[in-house]
Amino acid sequence: MVALGQGGNRTKEAEEEAAARWESEKEAEIDYVFKVVVVGDSAVGKTQLLARFTRDEFALDSKSTIGVEFQTRTLTLHRKRVKAQIWDTAGQERYRAVTSAYYRGALGAMVVYDVTRRATFEHVARWVEELRAHADGSSTVVALIGNKADMPAGRREVAADEAARLAEEQGLFFSEASALTGDNVERAFLTLLEEVFAVVSRRALELDEARRMRGDQGQGDGGRGGEVLSLKGTAVDVGSIMETSAMKRSSQCACS
Ligand SMILES: Nc1nc2c(ncn2[C@@H]2O[C@H](COP(=O)(O)OP(=O)(O)O)[C@@H](O)[C@H]2O)c(=O)[nH]1
Ligand SMILES: [Mg+2]
């Protein structure tokens, strides 16, 4: 390695300091934090989907659990800094013991099944029910994801059409994806986050309007304390609006 000398070190230190400052400033500028939960049977690829979206990684030797509760990725949507906080089960799904704390405050959810294991698809309804019961009811935007679309056709046990039909019935977005190749993973998460964004902004507007009608002004919490106008860093209780437009258009698997 080339010796940079004092000056070189200082420059490097300064650079690192600047980078750290920039990171924390960026952090401070975050407008929204969206909690998204990933559920589904064991070994359908939940952890790998999350790794693909947050770090663009796929670990071949993935263990069935990871130590942390969630991963984050910050992105810009409609000129707002959005931090997606994506929660992963730590293997509790194996014992059907996902707690209500896991779901609480989730604005978005992914219900994942494995296209090569029919039983994981048959359990989707149960996962959706559990979500509806523990998350914010119907206000949580839900996407159905058929993972492992990279697997050979002969291994497939669930047709995309069939899953699309179920999604339609249940009012969910649907996409097949592959955490292994990365196909559709980014798009699926982004579509979900976009929809959460739409729901949250609509709700914020409604609250704003309601507040204006009441003539509330300023910071005084004279109104109902439960209403959250500043969404920063908060789990937001959004209204019961859900639309199923964008992702359904991509209901046919784009991967081979
Ligand atoms: N072929 C293929 N295998 C996958 C894919 N995603 C995950 N896997 C494999 O499926 C197994 C379970 O994945 P994991 O993410 O731990 O599942 P989880 O229990 O739902 O979190 C692991 O052996 C992964 O390597 C995928 O998209 N394609
Ligand atoms: Mg896992």
TrEMBL record:
<dbReference type="GO" id="GO:0005768">
    <property type="term" value="C:endosome"/>
</dbReference>
<dbReference type="InterPro" id="IPR050209">
    <property type="entry name" value="Rab_GTPases_membrane_traffic"/>
</dbReference>
<dbReference type="GO" id="GO:0003924">
    <property type="term" value="F:GTPase activity"/>
</dbReference>
<dbReference type="GO" id="GO:0005794">
    <property type="term" value="C:Golgi apparatus"/>
</dbReference>
<dbReference type="InterPro" id="IPR027417">
    <property type="entry name" value="P-loop_NTPase"/>
</dbReference>
<comment type="similarity">
    <text>Belongs to the small GTPase superfamily. Rab family.</text>
</comment>
<feature type="region of interest" description="Disordered">
    <location>
        <begin position="1"/>
        <end position="20"/>
    </location>
</feature>
<dbReference type="Pfam" id="PF00071">
    <property type="entry name" value="Ras"/>
</dbReference>
<dbReference type="GO" id="GO:0005525">
    <property type="term" value="F:GTP binding"/>
</dbReference>
<protein>
    <recommendedName>
        <fullName>Ras-related protein RABA3</fullName>
    </recommendedName>
</protein>
<dbReference type="InterPro" id="IPR005225">
    <property type="entry name" value="Small_GTP-bd"/>
</dbReference>
<feature type="compositionally biased region" description="Basic and acidic residues">
    <location>
        <begin position="10"/>
        <end position="20"/>
    </location>
</feature>
<dbReference type="InterPro" id="IPR001806">
    <property type="entry name" value="Small_GTPase"/>
</dbReference>
